[in-house]
Design a protein that fits this description.
This protein is an alpha/beta fold and 193 residues long. The chain has two domains: 9-91 and 128-189, GTP cyclohydrolase II (Rossmann fold), CATH 3.40.50; 95-127, no CATH class. It is 35% helix and 26% strand. The chain has seven helices and seven strands, in the order E-E-E-E-H-H-E-H-H-H-E-H-E-H. It has helices at residues 55-59, 67-81, 98-109, 114-120, 131-139, 152-160, 179-189; strands at 9-15, 18-29, 32-39, 47-52, 84-89, 144-149, 164-169. The protein has a seven-stranded mixed beta sheet, with helices on both faces. The longest helix is centred in the middle third of the chain and has 15 residues, at 67-81. The protein is globular. It starts with 8 loop residues before the first strand and ends with a helix.
């Protein structure tokens, strides 16, 4: 892991949750930048959400997952506090990409859970990596975070990379479409739901 990474560009980003600054950083691929959405003055121990890209949830508001709701909830909570950071990592579908994620959806419709579907497609259950999130936070001068997550792997990765992490429980409400998905995340991936 690098100590920090240099930003590429930043721009003012007004949203329905208030005014943020969007900062682009190099990602794992030259075609995909990772992002930091920052509200307020950057100071140590901010609210932080590390969010992996989910086109279906974040953009299309799919009810198959809780991703879009988690992103909105993080923006709302940061807005209420007036300060915080969302690190947006471009690792769609737990790292398998959009096309394979859609194939996994079809397998789920046939009865597999999200973990079984990824494995049936030849992937591990989880391919995401949080090293670049650590690099971005270090570039922003952050050493301690209050992490908005229900995923203990994110906490472990940040702590492994030298951060002091306080877990802030972060979950969206289940619905009829994502209830089984959330139960699988809890039972097979140790998410704290």
């Amino acid at each position: 892991m690098k100590e920090s990474v240099k930003s590429l560009v930043e721009a003012r980003m007004p949203t329905k949750f208030g005014n943020f600054t969007l900062i682009a950083f190099p990602g794992d691929s030259k075609d995909k930048e990772d992002l930091a959405l920052v509200m307020g003055e950057i100071k140590d121990n901010p609210l932080v959400r590390i969010h992996s890209e989910c086109f279906t949830g974040d953009v299309l508001h799919s009810m198959r997952c809780d991703c879009g709701e988690q992103l909105d909830l993080a923006m709302q909570r940061i807005s209420e506090e007036g300060n915080g950071i969302i690190v947006y990592l471009r690792q769609e579908g737990r790292g398998i990409g959009l096309v394979n994620k859609l194939k996994a959806y079809n397998l789920q419709d046939e009865g597999m859970d999200t973990v079984e579907a990824n494995i049936a497609l030849g992937f591990r259950a989880e391919l995401r990596d949080y090293d670049n999130a650590s690099n971005i936070l270090k570039s922003l001068g952050i050493g301690k975070v209050r992490l908005l997550t229900n995923n203990p792997a994110k906490v472990e990765e940040l702590e492994k990379n030298g951060f002091v992490v306080k877990l802030v429980n972060h979950k969206a409400e289940a619905n009829n479409e994502n209830r089984d998905y959330l139960e699988t995340k809890a039972s097979k991936m140790n998410h704290k739901l």
